[in-house]
Specification:
heterodimer; A: 397 residues; alpha+beta; Cytochrome-c3 Hydrogenase, chain B; three-stranded antiparallel sheet; 48% helix; globular; B: Beta Polymerase, domain 2; 2 domains; two-stranded parallel ribbon; 4 helices; 12 strands
Chain lengths: 397, 213
């Protein structure tokens, strides 16, 4: 299409679709760009190819039946979604969780953050042509998946928590397995850092590519590692601590330039910080219950069900009618691997959610992506897309 | 105005103070809001002014619009208010406080002023609410469907939209209109508008991609 540049020259713009089915889009995302030579004059993005109607489906069942759906939001760290949703419902009830449950959740959250970052950076490096790092990372990720398998039987879609606690207690030897896995992930991270951190080719491909300033990132609603890469030191684990994060010794990692290099490096070093938290949490694991004893949320034990009429009725009602949060509305969020994962829940007092709105962290990142690309080269699309970590499952819901 | 982005988060305003800030705009605490969440109801005419005051106020600085949430109260038990609500959850990167603004609109007048120029994040979030609920955001530059296909009829998150209903959707959105608008906003002048065509796909087997996951 013929067009006049802002400087007055008339050029022929070529339009290209990058995606929706492109290896570097990691899911089905579409970028539609107008090219001036090899430079992107303007780009617009589309989403929705993986839209499954999450928010409509969750209105059809009970609160407990929402949990398996949450696995399928950010499937690179399914447990984080489980925990975020359960935490939001528990906030509506105002229940306190037992200490062991909280510590287990911290371990699972941080291990999930680590493997989410492994997938994000590993795949991003593949997009840059650096395949070796991907194998290093996926080997390490496999070790964590082995722990998941032993913990709950599932690798990808875990559904490991319940509203008011956990699916079940961890198996004996869980802490040792976790510590082993953490060590493997840490070693892999150091290996990959050794390969890329001062690598000329890597730096040329990522430095000053797709730069986002702090002001832009804030106004675009960015959160999490992408916001921190732009130099804004905000992390819900530090700013609005939950699950006792204020008692763990760890640092937030921030960048300065807000380019692709910083976004990758923030994630790299966050893996190492998460490792610190997991080690401290594993030391704190003490025996105890993992489910709250609040009868509004937790199923009574089989023993009670067989001998106590009230317990039998409660068990029946919890299964068939679901847990019943008080009528009202609540927003609650956690610091997920990608940023602030929030749930706005509207309850009408029944066992079925009246409305659940997910606030997926990568939504705001993808909404801003077209603007980020203006003025970059075509090859930078593949380089920068991985660094904002778009997960179509949570983006499209 | 320069600020340090690495300074620790400062103590936020208590709920009562935030409510007092919104009192001039007719803001009232939403009785539906549960503990921990502060939701303030106000009229849609006051929405933009209230958001601006919260965003730029020296002791509020609510500089992030996290989301725009649509709610359809059609089947909410004992509900007597207008059918739809639009909720704007806000947070600050300076102070430790959060709140949400809520605007209620009637079904036959489901129009809310757009705030895309106050917060970049509002642009797509408002498109999503339009798509899912059919609430119009007046002044929005590109109020197109976001999650659903452009041939989709109806608004699926309305409570009277049947869950199992199916629709046949076929053609891709060429997106030329959006691209040209973007070019023009960047100072380009498009001299010759293209015929909508599917375009040239780069991939799925583009050599530059390096591999498939």
């Amino acid at each position: 299409m013929k067009a006049r540049r802002p400087d007055g020259e008339v050029v022929e713009l070529m339009t290209v679709n990058i995606g929706p089915s492109h290896p570097a889009t990691h899911g089905t995302l579409r970028v539609f760009a107008a090219l001036d030579g090899e430079t992107i004059a303007a780009a617009v993005c589309e989403m929705g190819y993986l839209h499954r109607g999450f928010e409509k489906m969750v209105e059809q069942g009970t609160y407990q039946m929402v949990l398996p759906y949450t696995d399928r939001l950010n499937y690179c760290s399914a447990m984080m979604n489980n925990i975020a949703f359960c935490k939001a419902v528990e906030t509506m009830f105002g229940v306190e969780l037992p200490e062991r449950c909280v510590t287990l959740r911290v371990i699972l959250l941080e291990l999930s953050r680590m493997i989410d970052h492994l997938v994000c950076n590993g795949a991003n490096l593949v997009d840059l042509g650096a395949l070796t790092n991907f194998w290093y990372f996926f080997n390490a990720r496999e070790r964590v998946y082995k722990v998941w398998e032993k913990l709950c039987g599932a690798r990808l879609t875990n559904t490991v928590t319940r509203i008011g606690g956990m699916y079940r207690d961890a198996y004996p030897g869980f802490a040792e397995d976790v510590l082993d896995a953490v060590q493997v992930v840490e070693e892999a991270t150091h290996e990959v850092l050794g390969l890329i951190e001062k690598n000329r080719i890597f730096i040329d491909r990522t430095k000053d590519i797709a730069v986002v300033s702090a002001e832009e990132a804030i106004s675009a609603g960015w959160t999490g590692p992408c916001l921190r890469a732009s130099g804004v030191d905000r992390d819900l684990r530090k700013d609005e601590p939950y699950y006792g994060y204020e008692t763990y010794d760890f640092e937030t990692v921030i960048g300065s330039a807000g380019d692709t290099y910083d976004r990758i490096m923030v994630r790299m070093y966050e893996i190492l910080e998460s490792a610190k938290i997991v080690r401290q949490a594993a030391m704190r694991l003490r025996p105890g219950p993992v489910n709250t004893s609040d009868p509004r949320l937790s199923l009574p034990s089989r023993e009670q069900v067989y001998h106590d009429m009230e317990a039998l009725i409660n068990s029946f009602k919890l299964i068939y009618e679901g847990v019943r949060p008080p009528p009202g509305e609540c927003y609650d969020a956690i610091e997920a691997a990608n940023g602030e994962l929030g749930f706005y829940i509207v309850s009408d007092g029944s066992g079925r959610p009246y409305r659940i709105k997910v606030r997926p962290p990568c939504f705001t990142q993808w909404a801003h992506y077209g603007d980020m690309l203006t003025g970059s080269m075509v090859a930078d699309v593949a380089a920068s897309l991985g660094s904002i970590n778009i997960i179509a499952g949570e983006l499209d819901r | 105005m320069t600020r340090s982005f690495t300074a620790p988060l400062q103590a936020g305003l208590p709920e009562a103070e935030l409510l007092a800030r919104l009192a001039p705009f007719g803001g009232e605490r939403d009785p539906l809001a549960l503990a921990k969440t502060l939701v303030v109801r106000l009229a849609r005419e006051q929405l933009r002014a209230a958001l601006l005051a919260l965003r730029d106020g020296a002791d509020t600085r609510c500089d992030q619009l996290l989301d725009v949430v649509g709610i359809d109260y059609l089947s909410y038990p004992e509900w007597r208010g207008p059918r739809f609500a639009v909720v704007y959850p806000l947070k600050s990167t300076v102070f430790r406080h959060r709140l949400a603004l809520k605007v209620l609109v009637e079904e036959n007048d489901a129009v809310v002023p757009s705030v895309h120029d106050l917060y970049r994040s509002a642009n797509w979030a408002e498109r999503e609410v339009w798509d899912q609920f059919g609430i119009v955001f007046q002044g929005h530059p590109n109020l197109k469907r976001l999650l659903n296909h452009h041939e989709f009829v109806g608004h699926p998150l309305r409570k009277d939209y049947p869950c199992q209903k199916r629709q046949k959707l076929s053609l891709n959105d060429p997106m030329h209109d959006e691209l040209i608008a973007k070019l023009e906003s960047l100072g380009w002048q498009v001299l010759e508008r293209p015929e909508p065509s599917p375009g040239i796909p780069l991939g799925p087997m583009a050599a530059s991609a390096g591999g498939q996951r």
